[in-house]
Specification:
- By secondary structure, the protein is an alpha+beta fold.
- The chain has 7 helices and 12 strands.
- A hairpin with a 3-residue loop joins strand 11 and strand 12.
- Helix 2 runs parallel beside helix 4.
Length: about 270
């Protein structure tokens, strides 16, 4: 009898320590349908490892793909500053999902989103399907098919953004909500790209410059993480680099983003 009681206690404690893989995702689904905030891990009193969070991310992405399309993959939090904030040593991975990409000069309504943020990135397309882990980032340069300036729209659907954890960011697929793709730029100009962002003609934002080597390392990490997470990487899917700016909380107004003199993106939030 004592053995049975101990066994029950062990099983019960195991269930509490390791909540079912889709328990939080089910609550995401309800919140998504109601267009309201997602529950955070802290509010649910759960603990997840990074790998458990990626498994839940896969479940969440599969649900979103029922009415959206996968356009590729991305990495976020690539700088040491960002990683220190969340006590991590690597970027985090996400899947690029949208119904259709937005276009230059589009108009968005802030009321259609929850905690909307924007960021400037590059989208890289590869020449061929990748099925094996990449060992040498330099060889990737030969595999690049084309490069596009990108503005990513992200929704962080949490009530208190100061309290979200790295696991919340992973499970929620880093808030991916859509993107604008501009005209492609030449591979030889990668090192020369400097991003300038203006909102309502006056507000400027601090930007980060990346060398070609840094961009290739980001590309390598994202490809390898996608493969590790069970995804297939097809030719000409987009792979986003990390942002050239910190996340910018969306405010109403007109935005002009120049990628040096090679390409520009213009859009308005009302």
């Amino acid at each position: 009898m004592k053995f049975i009681l101990i066994a029950i206690l062990v099983i019960s404690s195991s269930i509490q320590a390791n909540p079912s893989s889709n328990s939080l995702v089910n609550k995401y689904k309800i919140a998504y349908e109601k267009k309201t905030y997602f529950p955070s891990i802290n509010s649910e009193n759960h603990f997840y490892s990074i790998n458990q969070s990626y498994k839940q991310q896969n479940e969440w992405v599969k649900y979103l793909l029922k009415e959206n399309k996968k356009y590729g993959f991305k990495s976020s939090l690539s700088t040491k500053k960002d990683q220190l904030k969340y006590n991590i040593n690597n970027p985090i991975f996400g899947v690029i999902i949208a119904k259709t990409p937005y276009t230059n000069f589009d108009i968005f309504y802030k009321s259609d989103f929850i905690n909307l943020h924007v960021s400037a990135k590059l989208g890289i397309k590869l020449k061929r399907k990748i099925t094996k882990q990449i060992k040498n980032s330099y060889d990737l340069k030969k595999e690049i098919h084309s490069i596009y300036p990108i503005i990513e729209l992200s929704e962080y659907k949490f009530k208190d953004l100061k309290k979200i954890t790295i696991n919340d960011l992973i499970i929620s697929n880093t808030g991916t909500s859509g993107f604008i793709q501009a005209d492609k730029i030449k591979i030889k100009d990668l090192d020369k790209i400097k991003v300038n962002i203006k909102q309502n003609k006056s507000t400027e934002f601090t930007t980060i410059n990346y060398s070609t080597d840094q961009l290739l390392n980001q590309l390598k990490w994202t490809i390898n993480r996608a493969l590790s997470n069970g995804w297939k990487i097809h030719s000409k899917e987009l792979i986003f680099t990390s942002a050239y700016t910190e996340l910018i909380p969306a405010k109403k107004g007109k935005y002009i983003i120049d990628f040096t003199n090679y390409s520009s993106i213009v859009f308005e939030i009302r």
